[in-house]
Each structure stands twice: as structure tokens, then as C-alpha cells.
């Protein structure tokens, strides 16, 4: 369903991308990097010995927290709505046709409690009228873990069995929604989830809970003439949540008391290891601060950018783009991991023309680089491409006559910087690469063109 995007494995052994911030002074650049690496090597023997003691210290801290918090009710997960899109919004009699596509971030705020989401149902409603219901696959959230979940709710393309259970919406409700869409260009919806989950904390037992996060007053604006709409505020929004405890937290039994006694003894034995482990952890963070993401950011080079099958008129538009990107890790101590992401081709920096997605996670080792080949076509991003307005097609048609067009390539990537010597601990960052000013020269009257030479793209430092 997604595009053909792959990492060039051979590129990991190729010479690294240029690392100098000042191309006119290579000697100064290399001297600064040598000093940074030498500072890191001073702590390397200590850091290499730290995992064993750090494990003992971590276990001790976990036991202390569990002992103190064993009788405290856990906090409910935080649910945040990041985006909301609608498509194919229409109605007929008492039947509603629509697709809702949402991305949610669910965060477990608890230090000692795992959360398993056993059964999840999401619903979309207009005022007090439920329009559609869908289910989400069960999953587990670890300690302090955050996960992005994509929820798709649809009343379109249902099978015979599902069609029998499709909700019937009152005609006056459908007429009211369609009237709002025509007159105001927007309709207000609400999203509610019904969650049956289980909390688990160490050896103390489990607890069943029922949660009902709600995101209210979601104003969706629609493009005139088609059933495509998007959340006007753009998010994110923290959903309000109700939490109901369905069972006792720790059942009274001799086993609970016996386990607590063992834990207290264990805490006394490892208290010294805890102090040593914490000291080494701070030393490791000091070393990480000398070689962290703020000192040597990831670099991106656009090696090739081409355009084919370009056809545009005042009322229709089609094209295919292909881009070759090289991600370089200039840092000598951190591994950069790029999560799956989407890339967009823009016209005049503000009009999105095409979308492509990279489904594979990309890991760039220290001082290495990897290359991606990305193809933009109508089937990319699951076939859900940006809507191109008539005025944009007219501008493209007029500018095409000059023999060239200017585009830009934009991405939003959730990434992590981790340090091997610190058991993979690191920093979560959001990167916003931008390759602008891509002037594509067309070859004759054909709808084909490309840029000449590679381009260095900008990646602002993560905040």
C-alpha cells in the first residue's frame, strides 16, 4: 500500500558526508571534532563498566518505587489527538457515507505500572448522535512509554455482515450536517473511545479499568465541491478522560507481605550500588552532552530529484516524482534512528502536490550515511494524496510555459539519538528537513525534467 522506499545498505560504508560547519576552514573543524571525541574517550572506561552497576541501581530504584507506590492507584494514560482528516463525506436518506482518519498519541505516565489495552472501540458523533464505530487492535504500553496509534473509522465499503450492523442516522441530523457544510464550510464532530484495560505492577497483581477518553468540538473544514475535510485547529488536543477502577489493586495474601520483606532486604543490599550507578549515570549524561544531538546534527543531501509524466491543465493534474536522499550521521558517539515518516512535494513552498511514505525504520550508525530512494505517485500514502485546487493547477500550467518549475521537499520525522555505552538511552527528537528551491528543468515538450547536481537540505536543530 505504501511506496517503494529502501535504504542503500552499501552506503553505510561510503565516505561520510561533509561534516564541517565552515567549508572555508577545514582545519578548525577537524580540531573541534578531535577535542570533542577526546573528551568522550576520557569517560569511556568508566562508561563501559557502568552497565552492570547501573542495572543494580536501576533495579533498586524500581523496587523502592514499587514498595512506596504499591497501594497508590495508577494514573490514567494520556490520550492526545494529533490530526483528523475526512474524505467522501456525503449522505443518502438515512445513510451516511464518510471516512475519518485520525492519529492519536497515547502516553503511559506511570513509573511502575504497565497498561494493556484489551478492547478498544472508537466512535464519531455529531452532537449526541453516534455516526460510526470502529475497533482498534489490542496493544501494550510499557513504563513511561508513548505510542502513536492511527484510527480509521469508515461507513464506506462495508461487507454484507457489517452492513447489517451499520448505524442508522436520523434524516434531520444528516440534513443539519449537510446544511452546516454548505453554509459554514465546516461541521463540528466529537470523538470518544471506550477502553477496557488491565494495569499490572510488578508482583503485586493486576487491576481492571474502564476508560472513556473524549475529544469534543472538533471543527472540520471542508473543501467546496468535494467531501474532503481536515481539522481546522490542527491540534494537538488532550482528550478528557474518565477512569473507573473495576477491581481491588492488591489482594490481601501472605505472598504480598513475604514479597515486600524480600524487597526491603534487597533495597538495603543494593543501596551502595545505587549510589555508584547514579554517579556513573550522571557522568554518562555529561559525556552525552558533549556529543549530543545539539552539537552535530543529522545532515541531509538530495542526490537526485526528477519529474516524469507531468500533465497539467486548468482542471486536471498528474505527475510522478522520484527523489534520492542521503542521511548522514556526523556524530561520533550517537546512533540516529529515524522512524517511518511521510514526505511531501510542495509547489511555491505552500501548496502540497504529492505524498510518499517511508515504511521502514532507518538506523544510521555513528559517522555513517544511508541512502533512500523515494517515489511519489498516485498510489503512495495509501492513495490518500493532497487535494490540488484549480487555481494551483492554473498557476502550474502558466509557469510550465517557462520551461521550468520550482518545488520543495518537506518531511516531519520522529527520531531518536541513542548511545551504545549507556544501554541505548538517548533523546527523542522531531526533525523537520526541508529541501527548497528545487528548480526542475523540462526536457523539450515532454513532461519530464530533473535538477542538475545534488543539493544540501536544511535540518533545523531539534528543540
Short description:
The protein has 463 residues and is an alpha+beta fold.
Shape call: flat
- The helix tally amounts to 5
Q: Can you give the mean pLDDT? A: 75
CATH domain class name of the largest domain: Mainly Beta
What fold name stands as the CATH topology of the largest domain? Immunoglobulin-like
What's the CATH architecture of the largest domain? Answer: Sandwich
Tally of DSSP β-strands: 25
Query: Which stretches of 5+ consecutive residues score pLDDT under 50?
Result: 1-49, 159-165, 245-255
Largest sheet descriptor = 13 strands, antiparallel
Helix and strand run:
EHEEEEEEHHEEEEEEHEEEEEEEHEEEEE
Ends apart, CA distance between termini:
33 Å
Amount of beta strand: 35-45%
Topology:
Layout: E1 6-8, H1 26-69, E2 78-92, E3 95-107, E4 114-126, E5 129-136, E6 139-141, E7 146-154, H2 160-163, H3 171-184, E8 186-200, E9 206-211, E10 214-222, E11 229-231, E12 237-238, E13 243-245, H4 254-290, E14 299-312, E15 317-328, E16 335-338, E17 341-347, E18 351-358, E19 362-364, E20 369-376, H5 390-400, E21 404-418, E22 426-431, E23 434-442, E24 449-450, E25 455-457
Antiparallel strand pairs: 1-20, 2-3, 2-11, 2-12, 3-7, 4-5, 4-6, 4-8, 8-9, 8-10, 9-13, 10-11, 14-15, 14-24, 14-25, 15-20, 16-19, 16-21, 17-18, 17-21, 21-22, 21-23, 23-24
Helix pairs in contact: 1-4
Amino acid at each position: 500500500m505504501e511506496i517503494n522506499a529502501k535504504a542503500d545498505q552499501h552506503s553505510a560504508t561510503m565516505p561520510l558526508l561533509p561534516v564541517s560547519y565552515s567549508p572555508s576552514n577545514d582545519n578548525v573543524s577537524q580540531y573541534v571534532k578531535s577535542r570533542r571525541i577526546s573528551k568522550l574517550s576520557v569517560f569511556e572506561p568508566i562508561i563501559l563498566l557502568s552497565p552492570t552497576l547501573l542495572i543494580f541501581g536501576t533495579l533498586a530504584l524500581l523496587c523502592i518505587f514499587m514498595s512506596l507506590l504499591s497501594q497508590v492507584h495508577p494514573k490514567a494514560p494520556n490520550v492526545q489527538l494529533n490530526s483528523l482528516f475526512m474524505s467522501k463525506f456525503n449522505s443518502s436518506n438515512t445513510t451516511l457515507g464518510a471516512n475519518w482518519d485520525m492519529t492519536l498519541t497515547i502516553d503511559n505516565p506511570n513509573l511502575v505500572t504497565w497498561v494493556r489495552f484489551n478492547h478498544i472501540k472508537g466512535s464519531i458523533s455529531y452532537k449526541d448522535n453516534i455516526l460510526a464505530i470502529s475497533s482498534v487492535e489490542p496493544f501494550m504500553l510499557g513504563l513511561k512509554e508513548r505510542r502513536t496509534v492511527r484510527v480509521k473509522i469508515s461507513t464506506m465499503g462495508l461487507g454484507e455482515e457489517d452492513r447489517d450492523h451499520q448505524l442508522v442516522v436520523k434524516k434531520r441530523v444528516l440534513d443539519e450536517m449537510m446544511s452546516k457544510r454548505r453554509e459554514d464550510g465546516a461541521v463540528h464532530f466529537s470523538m470518544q473511545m471506550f477502553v477496557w484495560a488491565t494495569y499490572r505492577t510488578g508482583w503485586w497483581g493486576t487491576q481492571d479499568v474502564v476508560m472513556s477518553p473524549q475529544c469534543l468540538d472538533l471543527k472540520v473544514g471542508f473543501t467546496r465541491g468535494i467531501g474532503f475535510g481536515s481539522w481546522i485547529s490542527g491540534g494537538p488536543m488532550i482528550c478528557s478522560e474518565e477512569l473507573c477502577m473495576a477491581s481491588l489493586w492488591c489482594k490481601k495474601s501472605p505472598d504480598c507481605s513475604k514479597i515486600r520483606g524480600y524487597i526491603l532486604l534487597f533495597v538495603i543490599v543494593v543501596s551502595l550500588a545505587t549510589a555508584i550507578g547514579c554517579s556513573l549515570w550522571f557522568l554518562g549524561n555529561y559525556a552525552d552532552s558533549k556529543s549530543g544531538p545539539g552539537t552535530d546534527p543529522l545532515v541531509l543531501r538530495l542526490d537526485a530529484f526528477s519529474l516524469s509524466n507531468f500533465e497539467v491543465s486548468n482542471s486536471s493534474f498528474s505527475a510522478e516524482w522520484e527523489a534520492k536522499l542521503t542521511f548522514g550521521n556526523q556524530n561520533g558517539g550517537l546512533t540516529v534512528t529515524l522512524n517511518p515518516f511521510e514526505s511531501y512535494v510542495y509547489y511555491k513552498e505552500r501548496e502540497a502536490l504529492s505524498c510518499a511514505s517511508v515504511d521502514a525504520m532507518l538506523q544510521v550508525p555513528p559517522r555513517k550515511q544511508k541512502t533512500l530512494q523515494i517515489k511519489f505517485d498516485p498510489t503512495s500514502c495509501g492513495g490518500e494524496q493532497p487535494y490540488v485546487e484549480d487555481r494551483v493547477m492554473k498557476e502550474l500550467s502558466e509557469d510550465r510555459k517557462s520551461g521550468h518549475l520550482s518545488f520543495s521537499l518537506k518531511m516531519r520525522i520522529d527520531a531518536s539519538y541513542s548511545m551504545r555505552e549507556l544501554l541505548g538511552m538517548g533523546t527523542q527528537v522531531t526533525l523537520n528537513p526541508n529541501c527548497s528551491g528545487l528548480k526542475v528543468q523540462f526536457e523539450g515538450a515532454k513532461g519530464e525534467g530533473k535538477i542538475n547536481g545534488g543539493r544540501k537540505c536544511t535540518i533545523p536543530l531539534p528543540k
